[in-house]
Amino acid sequence: MQKRFVSTENPKFKDFNFAEGELLLINKPYKWTSFDVVGKIRNSLKPLKLKVGHAGTLDPLATGLLIICTGKLTKQIDTFQAEEKEYTGTMVLGATTPSFDMETEVDETFDISNITEEEIYAACKPFIGDIEQYPPAHSAVKVNGERLYVKARLGEEVELRKRFVSVPEFEITRIELPEIDFRIVCSKGTYIRSLISDFGKTLNSGAYLSKLTRTRSGNFMIKDAFEVLELVNYIRSKKEEAKTEVIV
Fold first, then answer.
1. Which of 59, 72, 141, 233 has fewest C-beta within 10 Å?
2. Catalytic residues
3. Residue 62: which domain range?
4. Name one GO molecular function term (predicted).
């Protein structure tokens, strides 16, 4: 038999049938891994033993839209994962880190006093369209069955293999050096950290990612997403109140 979790209060919560399959839009919190979110939702559904998965990893230091699938809908994860993504974020110009973001400390700095706003806007152009990039050494990409970040954290050399991605849109939305805000629309598999690192090199400088939010995946928008604990607490409250319907 299946349990359906029924909303009788907040119209934001529809009638959920997690076993049959639900697509959940979640606003991933800062410093949570994508698997943390999956685990939190899976645990809230116990004693139901359901498949729960996500469609597109977000780095722990990134926030924003994470698509979670449950039950039979997990079979469609690859389809959702392949859709175009949109991000907004902030980079720091004039410095680099080994991880291309704030996970690691700054290892090199550059003088940016002579870089103009016109040069910054122009530096976007080489990254619009079909481009090639290397994933960061501190990434979840597997090489010979092992995650790159495992090797990187051990100080081992890693073999980076370039990949081809598409970036239809890359715009600068604010310049207040050393910070630069941006918006990017890109294909599956694009590493924003790598793009920002390469952007810094284009200006004969360095850059690293200091903030990143996924705002869209396909036609799904961050404005429609649940907060993790909001959804988890709702599910748990319905179980505690025994306000469920049983479908045979």
1. 233
2. 59
3. 21-81+220-246
4. tRNA pseudouridine(55) synthase activity
